[in-house]
Each structure stands twice: as structure tokens, then as C-alpha cells.
Here is the input.
Amino acid sequence: MSVRSLDERPAAQEQPLSKARSTFVGSLGRHRLMPVLLLAVLVALAPLLFPSGFYYRIFALVYIFALAAVGLNLLMGYAGQVSLGHAGFMGIGAYAAAIGPAHFGLPGWLSLIIGAVLSALIAFLVGRPILRLKGHYLAVATLGFGLLLAIVFTSEAEWTGGPDGMSVSRLVLFGWSVRGSETWYWVSAVLFLAGAAIAYNLIESPAGRAMRAIHDSETAAGVLGVDVSRTKLLVFVISSVYASIAGSSLAFFNGLVTPDVAGFLRSIELVAMVVLGGMGSVVGSLVGAAVLVLLPQALTFLHDYEHMVLGLIIMGVMIFLRDGIVPSIAAAFRGRRG
Amino acid sequence: MAELLQFAFSGLTVGAVYALVALGFTLIYNASDVINFAQGEFVMLGGLVTVFLLAAGLPLPVAALLAVVASTLVGLALYRFAIEPARGANAVTLIMITIGASIFLRGAAQVIFDKRYHSLPPLFGDTPIRFGGAAILPQSLVVLAGALVIVVLLWAFVDRTLFGKAVLATAANKLAARLVGIDTRLTVGFSFAISAAIGAIAGILVTPITLTSYNIGTLLALKGFAAAMLGGIGSAVGAVLGGLLLGLLEALSAGYLSSEFKDAVAFIVILAVLFVRPQGLLGRARVERV
Here is the structure.
């Protein structure tokens, strides 16, 4: 997957340009991949503002979590299905990246792909019965599913190193060893942009319209001929692949994986990124991931008061920007203009 | 047999706490449609405030009473300053607010108290009572009796008093309740206060057995939520049943299989129940109106 997405980045940038050249400049702004192009420019320019090399590391984490958040946002924000166990899929990806090279001598990139396929397969098998549940029942079922995966990672110590976790060997692509924060900044950025581009494409596709119809009303969507359970399952599988690839990247980047990657708190954190940034907004997922990765870093000077302030900020954002940061701000701008 | 009895008793004791947390979930959910993930923090507050007031020299009953009052005030503040201003927001946003509140309360407890584990003296000593070959801690019986008293009092209150009926009416239909002259802000606020008080009492009762610390709330909220869903959200009897069942399942699988898998078994059963009955054990299946 990472190999393919490396090639996809230029495509994502050039496609809207080449198309728009022949038409009006105005249609450039309306093209569905325009936001991805703008994000790519931001991502490329961001390092100019970094005061130190440490920020490469932090922002690499932002992009990795943003990738998982975009996938979860497809499920929650667009299809309207909650998952409180998505870190479980991150765990599958992370442990695939660790176990593949360590126990089977597989190359890292192949392990990442195997992790993604495995996640998709498990999501497909589990998704059918779980997605029949609605609302809070779906929440508790996905929570239980995530917890079960975390328990497996903790208890199968022979394979996973148990609660202490295991080290992950470096990712090697075509003989090029991916190492260092700066390199990972660009690799994770490309992965995130590819994920965002795929998400934008999916949202505008017939399947995407079916997803959004289900969000508004399952019954109405069914009446209009949408295969509700199949569409929900499709989004669930896609979002599990996003989480799995993000998990693999996190494992390669950290060089270490512990069962925490699949834990309940991680799942909650992913949901928080989606909701804080804005459900149904791909850019929102990036903002949500940035807020939740950067805030704890920014608040360390508060020492013991860190968690109090973090809790207050989460509450404040949700009370005053209840649709999430990006949609609320966008709505405020629209309101001012007209 | 003695072994089974032993496991069953420890399961029921923990289950009683889950049941009380689940009951708190249910009260707040019925009144306001909010899934309150800060519910576990009330259990933490009840235990920790009592521990520290006791250490400050207050007698146990006074310390316990003040701890319940303090938690109740926190519950009211949660409603007034976090849930009320966000009314009308969607369910996930409200859940995020309660998660924010739970992070805040945990952080506050860590600053005001400390990060260590604490215990309280058991009410009737710690000499186990022999019963059918099993050794039962007297405090276990206190927890079970306490849970029973709370459930009965709550039932009597809701069923027998005018204000209780107003709370019930608010839960059934908020708009209709307001139309017949019920101050729904008062009844919803009251539901938050009561479920905070119930959580605090559970925390005080169980601390002598399970100890308490600033970070016990998350796991309890998770278990309480699972118990409430197992029983069927919105059903008070279901919440109590779900809690006891969850506690029993954990204790039995920890005893007969391995403590590693106690959560696994509990959640496998919950998943299995939801596949057969998507609305929980006692929940009513809802027909969606279009």
C-alpha cells in the first residue's frame, strides 16, 4: 500500500491542475480534489515554520493519526456508525508490521499489506453481525470487539511480547531504509494525503452518496434502493484498512509496539479526533489529530495540571463548537458573508 | 461447590458496584439522552474524598456523608456547566463532553489528592464469615445490602412521590412533561445529582475491598456502560441485572479459566447477547418512526 501511495501523491496533485487548465479557473476551486491539493501545499510548507527538528517527529505523528481519523470519519461522520473499538484495527496493523519481519522474515512493506488485508477480512467477518446493531448498542459491541483484540495482543506473549510489547525492525522500501523523523514526516504526509484523496473520491462516488443517505435515514435509504447493510459493511472495511495502515506506520515509526496501541483509550482518542475536528470533514480529521497530538505536548509545562486543562479544552470546544472545529468555523464564515 | 460459592460471592460484590454505576448511567440517559462516561469518576470521588476526610480527622460517617454531598455537587455542576449549555447537540458530541469531564475530574483528583492507592476500614472488621465452605468478607455483604437499599429507595421514590413521577415523566417525554408544568431542568439536574450520589455511595462501600485511586473511574465507566447495554439501555431493572451478571461472569471466568481472560469472556457474552437480542436483555425493541 505504501509503495502504491508513494506514486499516488503526484497524481493527486496534478490531476486537478491538468483538468482545470482547459476550463475556467473557477472550476478549479470546485474540483473535489482541490482540498487535497491545498493540504499538500500546507504540508509541504509547514516545515518552514518548524523551530526545531523535533517538530518533524510530532507532525509525523499528526499525519499518522489523521490517516486513522479520516478512515473513522468515513464510518462515523459520513455513514453515521459509531465505533469505539477502532484502535483494534490499528493494533492489527501495528502487530502485523512487528510480527511479519520478526517471526516470518517478511519484508516490512509486505507485512503492512498483509496487516491491511487481515484487518479488512476481520472487519468483513465481524462487521456483518455488529453493524446490525444501532446507536449505543453498536458502540458497546465495537468497544467489546476492540477490547478483545487488545486482550489477545496482551496475552499471546509468544507472538506479541505480551504487555511489554516488541520491537519493530525498520521499514525498507526498494533497499531504501526509512529512518529519521524528517523522512517519516514526508512518508506519513504522503500516506495521509493519499488517504484524504481516496476519501474525497469515495464521498463523491455512488457508494459515498449511499453512505450519506444511510446517515440521514436508514429506512429512507433502504426505500430508495440502497443496500444498507452492504454499504455499512463496505465503509467499515474501508475504515479498518485506514486504521490498519496507520497502525503499521506508527509501529515502523516508533520502532516499538505495545498493546496500548489497540487499547480502549486509543479508540476513544480516535473518536475524539473525529468529533473534535468535525464529523463529516476530512480536513477536520487532520485538525482533530493535530489538536490531540499537539495539546499534550503544549501542556507539559503545566505539569500536574495538564489533564485538568486538557479536559477543560475538550469540554469547551465541544460546548462552543458543537459540530466540531472545522465545520463550526466554516459555518461562521459562511454566515458572515451572506 | 465451595469454590463456586466463593467465586459467585466475589462476582456479586463487584457486580453490585457495576450495577450501581449502570443504574447511574440509566438515570442520566433516561432524563437527558446523555451517555455519561464520567459516571465512574463519581465512584472514584466518593471513595477518595472519604479517605482524605477521614485522614483529616473526621469520623467515618461524617466523612462519608460529606463525600456523597461533594460528589452530588460535582454531578450538578457537570449538568449545569457542561451538559445544559450544549443541549440539542448530537449524541456523540455530548459523549465527548462527558469524556472531557472525566479527564478533567481525574486530573483534578490527581492534583487535589495523590496518585497512590487508598483503602478504608471495613465497617464490620475483616474476619471472613464461613458459609458453605466459602469465606465471605463482611464488607461484601455491606456492599450487597447497600446496593439493595439504594435500588429499593430509588424505586420507592420514583413510584411513590410526586417529584419521582415528574422525573419519570421527563424521561418518558420531555416536551409533554414541560407542557403539564414540570420544570424539566430541575428533574434532569436532579437525575444527575442522584446518579452522582449513587456512584459515590458505591465508591465508599467498595473501597475497603477493591481499594481506590484517582484513575479507577475509566474502567468502571466502561464496565457500567457495558452492563447497562447488556441489560438494555433505559431499563433500571436491566441495569442492575446487567451489572450483577457482568460481575458474575468476570469472577467465574477469572476463577475457572484465567484472570487474563475475564474481560474477554464478559465481552464475548455481551456480544453474543446483543447478536440474539440487539436491544439488550430487558430493553424494548424500538420501531423507528419515519
Summary: Residues 2-21+32-263 of chain A form one domain. Chain A touches chain B through 49 residues (CB under 8 Å).
